[in-house]
Amino acid sequence: MDFEPFKLVPIGVVRKGNRTWLEIRPEFAEGLNSLREGDWIKLILWFHKSDTPEKRRTLKVHPRGDPSNPLRGVFATRSPVRPNPLALYTVRIRRIEGTRIFVEDIDAYDGTPIVDIKIFVPHLDCPEDPEG
């Protein structure tokens, strides 16, 4: 099966300093309308430092990079090494200042591209009976 490549446009980047914030590009500022301090959001990032042809071909990893952990398929882990190095976080908005969204600390590098932000919806994001 052939897949056509598609394009993702970063809407901003993660910034790390004394605090962690999301720096949203000005052309996407209107998309922040109605987000509020205290809201929970789903943050989708592109782990750009894991984006190499070799890492994209890696389908088994030792969880947490620890060789004492048995090899597992990347889809059964949260490894940044995967065919498409996307990261997914659920974070609470601490403060909003213009196009800066301050969030709790995450394990992304300064400059990590932000692919998208979605509001967290409990009944969709946390099914009551995941075994059902």
Tell me what you see in this structure:
The chain is mainly beta. It has one domain (12-120): Elongation Factor Tu (Ef-tu), domain 3 (Beta Barrel), CATH 2.40.30. It contains two helices and eight strands; from the N terminus they run E-E-E-H-E-E-E-E-E-H. The two termini are 32 Å apart.
Number of DSSP E strands? 8
Question: What is the mean pLDDT?
Answer: 92
- Output the helix-strand order: EEEHEEEEEH
Radius of gyration: 16 Å
General shape: globular
Structural class: mainly beta
End-to-end C-alpha gap: 32 Å
Q: Strand order within the widest sheet?
A: 1-2-7-6-3-8
Helix content: under 10%
Largest pleated sheet: 6 strands, antiparallel, barrel
CATH topological fold name: Elongation Factor Tu (Ef-tu), domain 3
Low-pLDDT windows of residues: none
Number of domain units: 1
What is the count of DSSP helices, taking H or I runs of 4+ residues?
2
Strand content: 25-35%
CATH class: Mainly Beta
Protein name: TsaA-like domain-containing protein
Family: Belongs to the tRNA methyltransferase O family.
Keywords: S-adenosyl-L-methionine
Domain TsaA-like: 8-129
